[in-house]
């Protein structure tokens, strides 16, 4: 575990999953404090090499059928990298870089992952690079799963969001216009082409800007927080193809997002 600091802001990171368990500004939580043992119920988990669900945990690529661990509602969910120990490659007072070599029987190829965290007093930047270091093509969707603390009423603002039409939380490939109102109940994915995505409440204001991560998953199933998850593709992209990248051997892909925040004094 390491702690990054920039002025009155601090972030706590763990080697398991390269997971962020705490982000605080002026002694007040920006994200809901989490546990490395339950990474998708607080803090901010990294989702690699798929984000959200793969229907039935089974998919096919290049004529080969692969089977992933099923861990939610009969589906594979939230990737493979959360359960793995990343290597802390370098760090300073306000930055850290973790690296991971990922090889799994349910995944076609070996990949190398590098994540870079950089903290300022009012922002956290996260950059992720994935390289296919194996011999077969590799399907790829990445994401992050931050839970932002809110008070009521909260509101999400985004320009021109399109909701991924879903059946039992599995997108069909269709998109429908959507307008966010005040609060709401969500476990839904949206295609949002323009930044920023803004979450505001009397507690704080959070702005998210993304590079090559045009989807967001919004989840309201944890009291006192709203998860706004930047993702490069939609849930079940291994089947519906929404945002899916296929890396050739030797090919790399890069993704990043920046979270800017201001916590109001109570």
SSE layout and pairing:
Blueprint: E1 2-6, E2 9-14, E3 19-25, E4 28-29, E5 44-47, E6 53-54, E7 58-61, E8 64-67, E9 76-77, E10 87-91, E11 95-102, E12 111-120, E13 123-132, E14 138-140, E15 143-149, E16 155-157, E17 162-167, E18 170-177, E19 187-191, E20 197-200, E21 204-211, E22 215-219, E23 225-231, H1 237-240, E24 245-247, E25 252-263
Précis, in short:
The chain is mainly β and 266 residues long. Helices cover 2% and strands 53% of the residues.
Give a verbal description of the structure.
By secondary structure, the chain is an all-beta fold. The chain has a single domain (2-263), classed as Beta-galactosidase, Chain A, domain 5 (Distorted Sandwich), CATH 2.70.98.10. The chain has one helix spanning 237-240, and strands at 2-6, 9-14, 19-25, 28-29, 44-47, 53-54, 58-61, 64-67, 76-77, 87-91, 95-102, 111-120, 123-132, 138-140, 143-149, 155-157, 162-167, 170-177, 187-191, 197-200, 204-211, 215-219, 225-231, 245-247, 252-263. It has an 8-stranded antiparallel sheet, with no helix packed on it. A hairpin with a 3-residue loop joins strand 20 (197-200) and strand 21. The longest helix is centred in the C-terminal third of the chain and has 4 residues, at 237-240. It is globular. The two termini are 30 Å apart. The mean pLDDT is 97.
